[in-house]
Design brief:
Elements: E1 7-11, E2 20-24, E3 37-44, E4 47-61, H1 68-77, E5 89-102, E6 110-112, E7 123-126, H2 129-135, E8 143-149, E9 156-160, E10 178-181, H3 188-200, E11 206-211, H4 215-220, H5 232-238, E12 242-247, E13 251-252, H6 256-265, H7 268-271, H8 277-292, H9 306-324, H10 328-343, H11 348-360, E14 367-368, H12 369-378, E15 385-390, H13 393-402, H14 408-413, H15 422-449, E16 458-463, H16 465-468, H17 478-493, E17 499-505, H18 513-518, E18 521-525, H19 531-541, H20 545-552, E19 569-573, E20 585-589, H21 592-598, H22 631-635
Parallel strand pairs: 10-17, 10-18, 11-15, 11-16, 12-15, 13-14, 16-17
Antiparallel strand pairs: 1-2, 1-7, 2-5, 3-4, 3-7, 4-5, 5-6, 8-9, 8-20, 18-19, 19-20
This protein binds adenosine-5'-diphosphate and magnesium ion.
Adenosine-5'-diphosphate (ADP) binds next to helix 3.
């Protein structure tokens, strides 16, 4: 064999095609090896093969230190002259990753499968960036870079973020689902933003972000969240993406079920002083029934104005009080509350009602959720939109302020309760998921009838998935069960229509198992190294001890002394890179500057200057890394046109 300058080790024994022992050369004994990318070349069927892989663990053996007599000497001397140190045998475990082959020196490398074993003594070298680029050259138009090899800061890992459309244009041909998981602060949102920007490069791919925390909505409005410095909005602008944010007040809501929920969210029950969960539901149902009565002259989208509310309250008192309360006392009390509201035009119930009616009314150009997702999925090739549905409390409060004085009393009266409750969020998400599930199929079948083979080529990014599809759910949580079942169904059924889901979550163990089974690409950041979470990680990456051990060695990004030193380590698994095969890849995520530089991301700075929101304009229940904006920020307009 020939030992090159770069040779670190040779293939040793025992080795299998899935796990190889490497004997480390003396010269490499103090090199950083764990997590490093290496390669060796071998012959298979007369062709040159180049096998790459990542070193997952190291071990060292010195038989003298295991000898009982020597151990006695060590006990007093601390070492054995001429044997300690010099007789150490170091070995490493190599998980072979991608295998490339070529017919001769002049042809491009292509993918191969390793079907034999290299002889012991085969030289193993560090994989250099130049060699890596030569290996993946045939794919180069479809590659992105989001980080450096975990053990080797000199090597950037090429990754795929393929769209779901035609393989001739670099697509996957069908959708695949992704999970980005890790503890809070591990860098999930940052990696998700980079992944989104890579996807945003594909002008033929539409993107929907379901944003319960409002973080992405803030970003596209140029309020940078977090300290990574990633110019999310300016890059999207540079990529010429059409970007649109919708808050709850910017969509037109539909359906009696949602209506009833919103009555309760907005405290109509409280205004009527109705006690008891069942009674509240009875009240909400009564509202729907009154509107539906043939002679009411009302529909869900024409409820604005005092006349409608007056009519409903009068009916409620006359016909429904006995259904809401069995006892006379309750009935009388309800009647008294109704009169109190009817007599006092300044009662907060009026403005709450006005707001409910507004959400369901047809005035303005507000679209329904169904029509927003239809437009998105059916949009024209080459210029497809990126839509953020902002379901956050903070974002939607801001929108309420934007609506001006018409709901002023409501805002002021509602100091300590959230208008935009958890259950409202879930109801809206249910609408989004069920519309997407249904419409992607409709769009594709219609296209098929017209001889058009395109799928919907749409990515949906979803934060906090476990809240909507938890592993276990309370038996009496009917809404929760319904939402989860719909999400599971969507994940199972939409792939073939080109609709792919990307979930971001701080747990894997807490997420529904069926969803995890449908996911192909995993990005796992720091912090899932205990108990149920670790078990889930193991199940995903397979049985290799070395892979799991390397993952567990990740250092908490929060534990560094200074910001400059911080590293954000990731383990990625699945068809995420030309370098991956049956083992995960380990990398440290790029900072914003490297991401822009190595992917040639266009940053359009003609936008507003970078702004940082300052103090909360009012008490907000939202927590986490989303910040509430000041009135001054608002004055600059929230929606980009
Ligand atoms: N690759 C990175 N480079 C630089 N800073 C990062 C990186 N990843 C995360 N950060 C920073 O660390 C903090 C937490 O990251 P974030 O993506 O919000 O984590 P998570 O979503 O997992 O809670 C943020 O301030 C973010 O800017
Ligand atoms: Mg986050």
């Amino acid at each position: 064999m020939t030992i090159h300058n770069e040779t670190l080790a040779v293939i040793g024994s025992p080795s299998t095609n899935d796990e190889m022992t490497l004997d480390i050369l003396e010269r490499a004994k103090d090199a950083r090896l764990v997590g490093s990318l290496v390669r060796f070349t071998t012959l298979q069927d007369g062709q040159e093969l180049c096998v790459t892989g990542q070193i997952t663990s190291l071990s060292m053996f010195n038989k003298w230190h295991q000898n009982d007599v020597m151990r006695n000497i060590i006990k007093s001397n601390g070492s054995v002259p001429h044997l300690s140190g010099s007789q150490d045998v170091r070995s490493a475990t190599l998980s072979p990753g991608a295998v490339f082959g070529r017919a001769d020196k002049n042809s491009d490398w292509g993918f191969r499968v390793l079907g034999n074993l290299p002889p012991t003594g085969t030289a193993v070298e560090r994989l250099q960036q130049s060699m890596l680029e030569e290996l993946v050259h045939s794919q180069k138009d479809n590659l992105f870079y989001v980080g450096r090899a975990y053990g080797d800061g000199n090597v950037r890992l090429p990754m795929y973020f393929k769209h779901f459309g035609d393989p001739k244009t670099g697509g996957q041909g069908e959708a695949y689902h992704t999970l980005i998981a890790g503890k809070t602060g591990s860098g999930k949102s940052t990696v998700a933003k980079m992944a989104l920007l890579c996807h945003a490069r594909h002008a033929d791919e539409a993107i929907l972000i379901v944003d319960p925390k409002g973080e992405f909505a803030d970003e596209i409005s140029n309020y940078q969240v977090g300290s990574s410095g990633l110019q999310f909005a300016n890059i999207l602008k540079g990529l010429n993406r059409k970007v649109q944010r919708y808050g709850i007040t910017q969509v037109r809501l539909e359906g009696y079920e949602l209506f009833e929920d919103i009555l309760l969210s907005l405290g109509i029950d409280a205004a009527l002083n109705i006690r008891g969960a069942d009674n509240k539901i009875e009240m909400a149902t009564a509202f729907s029934e009154i509107i539906r009565e043939a002679d009411s002259g009302l529909t869900l989208d024409t409820l604005r104005g005092r006349a409608a509310f007056t009519h409903i309250l009068e009916k409620l008192g006359a016909d429904y009080a006995t259904r809401i309360y069995k006892g006379k006392e309750g009935q009388d009390a309800l009647q008294a509350e109704i009169e109190r509201i009817l007599d006092n035009q300044k009662h907060r119930a009026w403005s709450a009602w006005e707001f409910v009616a507004f959400l369901f009314s047809k005035d303005g150009n507000r679209q329904t959720i169904g029509s927003i997702v239809h437009h998105l999925m059916a949009s024209d090739s080459g210029n497809r939109p990126l839509v953020v549905l902002d379901l956050s409390v903070s974002g939607n409060r801001r929108d309420l302020f934007d609506l001006g004085d018409q709901f002023k009393e409501l805002r002021e009266a509602d100091e300590e309760r959230d208008l935009f409750t958890d259950s409202l969020q879930k109801k809206i998400i249910y609408r989004i998921v069920s519309s997407m599930r249904r419409l992607c199929e409709t769009i594709v079948s219609e296209r098929v009838r017209n001889g058009d083979k395109r799928n919907v080529n749409t990515l949906v990014l979803f934060e906090e998935a476990h809240r909507f599809a938890p592993k276990s759910i309370a038996a009496d949580d009917e809404d929760g069960k319904k939402l989860k079942a719909k999400l599971v169904e969507a994940v199972r059924e939409t792939r073939k229509y080109g609709l792919g889901w990307a979930f971001i979550d701080q747990t894997i163990g807490g997420l529904d198992k069926e969803i995890i089974q449908q996911i192909r690409c995993f990005y796992i950041g720091y912090g899932l190294s205990m108990g149920e979470e670790l078990q889930a990680v193991r199940e995903i990456v397979g049985g290799d001890q070395g892979d799991v051990a390397l993952y567990r060695s990740f250092k908490d990004p929060a534990s560094y002394g200074s910001v400059e030193e911080k590293m954000y380590p990731w383990m990625a698994f699945g068809p995420i890179s030309p370098m991956s095969a049956n083992h995960p890849l380990f990398f440290n995520a790029f900072g914003a500057e490297d991401f822009v530089k190595f992917n040639n991301m266009p940053v359009d700075m003609s936008n507003r200057q970078f702004k940082r929101p300052t103090m909360a304009m009012r008490k907000s229940k939202s927590t986490g890394n989303v910040q509430t904006l000041t009135m001054n920020d608002l004055a600059n307009g929230f929606l980009d046109d």
